[in-house]
């Protein structure tokens, strides 16, 4: 069973032992202008062909997708005043092969979905796959761009009710800058929803050592443990920035044979959803 | 639309499907080239092939659930459904195709709003079951009265109902809800794949071609099309099993009374004979339905008898020894006299066997071969199988139709989940839960009924003693019996 640990796993272990908070803060901001890391793009380019294979490397993402909708529903239900129930506008950043984007576009409450990804190969897969469902026509638009390449909204009508960042933030080198760029795209009263992985002993063990090295259910090099972000860091960022309220979190655990399950408190150790609402002017 | 030739399109398809399938496609395309290329398929979310109990309850359930009511659905059925819709028989006539509906099936039919359209005066609940061994006489009695004393209230074990009464009620519910495109008296000519156009790529979508020339592209194609399911054949799913070398003889019987307990407390009777089980199941009033599983030769013999002799054979089957019965099967006629003579010399407890049959409804004697079949899986890409298309069971436990209702309930739940979570309801991944839920459960029932059949076709030797001990032991163990009864009623704890 003992597969050899890869150098990156060992390097991460070393970092974990040092646990220097300074390191994380340094990583949070930088001078670069694009949020996109070229190494990440080439990694996902290589994965493009298997994106929609239900028994392939993206199976865990496919299985997680219903929870994303449950989480968004939970966010909307928590609002003091119920939000709109029809014609919702979604912006899905880092859409990959379009697992979430397609599903969001199929919901009867959705008006339109704009989904962007910097990897041209992955986006080609997404576009080709969307053509297989005539129901998506006119509701789903794919753009091969980073968030920086998207024109800034000039009115509330051009902003989005839901901006989603699913399994994205852990692939971004400078998350704070990236979130700064995302913020103007959200409507007042709209939500940023995201899912990611906490930086903990457990997540290092499960996502790097077990998932990538031993069980190999996730392709090697998919995760860079150093870039994982903890929930309190995200919450801290948004509340510091002001203009945001009602942070929500939901920890989830993958249990073989049962699938993804919500487990209270597990956001501290592994995969979790995070949502936060933009103030209504 | 891109001007592609048929052969070019087939080449493209070659990348996605195996070579044997593309061979088939090439053949189909050649055959239909002149027709199909001009007609663009209409796009549906669900196309259900087969308008039997499973198919109709699927459509009624989809239309009555708020989550799935927006789906565009169509039904394809080769028979004329207006005959089903107008099902009407006088109170003293019953169709010979009856099924036992478990309380759990009835609850589901009620949830989807169909049960209120079923004619209740033609439905008969029963609260007791008498099952015994034809050779040793060992017996198991299922009786809800004991349950009632335990304070759980009297619940019927199951309800006998004519299949037509059910399908007619389901059709009325579908008519009431509206929104189903019903294409009856339409044969499925062919099932192939769609084409690619500028806007959409339907090369992975099943396209059903009807003899009227219509083409229906299905996001999800449901095969509710019976044991020889064309949908199953299209999807390449194998169905395995064996034939029992038995036929089920059915008939509508008139008995000397309305049962020992009257209309309020009816009993189902089943005796295991070496040739197979014979069952008499109560219908309203003085009527019962017969299901007699026996060898094809004996079944053929029964069908040649005069009504008088047929009735005598039925009465003998519940009363006389297998040896007596075997003798009477050798007679070309005269069973009525033979029975009255032999019955005088046989002892039996009147209250534990059905009342004597005194008449058989004209034209109601029929027979069909019994077999066991189970599909390897119930799902494929854009395909789901329900009911007999997925499994065929020995009728001894009366579970066939109920399994189909269980399939439909589970499939609709799976589709509801997919719709509310934005999944494409046709892709295999969205359907996985349906297969997981139903396959193991059905497989267990198929196995249990198969083993029971085999156990009771043994005429002598230690097995007869063992099975009798088994029946007597179960009969004396209250909790175990309650558990078995709950399983029969479909209300029990899920074993799997």
TrEMBL record, chain A:
Binding residues for S-adenosyl-L-methionine: 68, 94, 117, 166
- What is the enzyme's class at the highest EC level? transferase
Name the positions where Mg(2+) binds. 167, 170-171
- Which EC number(s) are documented for this chain? 2.1.1.64, 2.1.1.-, 2.1.1.114
Where in the cell?
Mitochondrion inner membrane
Note the SUPFAM superfamilies from the entry.
S-adenosyl-L-methionine-dependent methyltransferases
UniProt keyword list: Magnesium, Membrane, Metal-binding, Methyltransferase, Mitochondrion, Mitochondrion inner membrane, S-adenosyl-L-methionine, Transferase, Ubiquinone, Ubiquinone biosynthesis
Q: Which GO terms describe its biological process?
A: methylation
Pathway terms, separated by semicolons: Cofactor biosynthesis; ubiquinone biosynthesis
Which cofactors does it use? Answer: Mg(2+)
Q: Which reaction does it catalyse?
A: a 3,4-dihydroxy-5-(all-trans-polyprenyl)benzoate + S-adenosyl-L-methionine = a 4-hydroxy-3-methoxy-5-(all-trans-polyprenyl)benzoate + S-adenosyl-L-homocysteine + H(+); a 3-demethylubiquinone + S-adenosyl-L-methionine = a ubiquinone + S-adenosyl-L-homocysteine; a 3-demethylubiquinol + S-adenosyl-L-methionine = a ubiquinol + S-adenosyl-L-homocysteine + H(+)
Topology versus the membrane:
Peripheral membrane protein
Q: Which family does it belong to?
A: Belongs to the class I-like SAM-binding methyltransferase superfamily. UbiG/COQ3 family.
Classification via NCBIfam families = UbiG
Q: PANTHER family attached here?
A: METHYLTRANSFERASE, UBIQUINONE BIOSYNTHESIS O-METHYLTRANSFERASE, MITOCHONDRIAL
Q: What does this protein do?
A: O-methyltransferase required for two non-consecutive steps during ubiquinone biosynthesis. Catalyzes the 2 O-methylation of 3,4-dihydroxy-5-(all-trans-polyprenyl)benzoic acid into 4-hydroxy-3-methoxy-5-(all-trans-polyprenyl)benzoic acid. Also catalyzes the last step of ubiquinone biosynthesis by mediating methylation of 3-demethylubiquinone into ubiquinone. Also able to mediate the methylation of 3-demethylubiquinol into ubiquinol.
Provide the protein name. Answer: Ubiquinone biosynthesis O-methyltransferase, mitochondrial
Organism (species): Hyaloscypha bicolor E
Origin organism lineage? Eukaryota, Fungi, Dikarya, Ascomycota, Pezizomycotina
Automatic annotation (TrEMBL), chain B:
List each copy of the FAD-binding domain by range: 44-440
Q: Which InterPro entries match?
A: FAD-bd, FAD/NAD-bd_sf, Ubi_Hdrlase_CS, UbiH/COQ6, UbiH/COQ6_monooxygenase, UbQ_mOase_COQ6
Listed under GO cellular component are: extrinsic component of mitochondrial inner membrane
Output the Pfam families linked to this UniProt entry: FAD_binding_3
* Catalyzed reactions: a 4-hydroxy-3-(all-trans-polyprenyl)benzoate + 2 reduced [2Fe-2S]-[ferredoxin] + O2 + 2 H(+) = a 3,4-dihydroxy-5-(all-trans-polyprenyl)benzoate + 2 oxidized [2Fe-2S]-[ferredoxin] + H2O; a 2-methoxy-6-(all-trans-polyprenyl)phenol + 2 reduced [2Fe-2S]-[ferredoxin] + O2 + 2 H(+) = a 2-methoxy-6-(all-trans-polyprenyl)benzene-1,4-diol + 2 oxidized [2Fe-2S]-[ferredoxin] + H2O
Per the UniProt record, which EC number(s) apply here?
A: 1.14.15.45, 1.14.15.46
Membrane topology term = Peripheral membrane protein
Cofactor(s) annotated in UniProt: FAD
The keyword Oxidoreductase belongs to this UniProt entry's keyword annotation = yes
- Please tell me whether the keyword Oxidoreductase is annotated for this protein: yes
Give the multimer and partner information. Answer: Component of a multi-subunit COQ enzyme complex, composed of at least COQ3, COQ4, COQ5, COQ6, COQ7 and COQ9.
Protein role: FAD-dependent monooxygenase required for two non-consecutive steps during ubiquinone biosynthesis. Required for the C5-ring hydroxylation during ubiquinone biosynthesis by catalyzing the hydroxylation of 4-hydroxy-3-(all-trans-polyprenyl)benzoic acid to 3,4-dihydroxy-5-(all-trans-polyprenyl)benzoic acid. Also acts downstream of coq4, for the C1-hydroxylation during ubiquinone biosynthesis by catalyzing the hydroxylation of 2-methoxy-6-(all-trans-polyprenyl)phenol to 2-methoxy-6-(all-trans-polyprenyl)benzene-1,4-diol.
Protein family according to the UniProt entry: Belongs to the UbiH/COQ6 family.
Protein known as: Ubiquinone biosynthesis monooxygenase COQ6, mitochondrial
- What gene makes this protein? COQ6
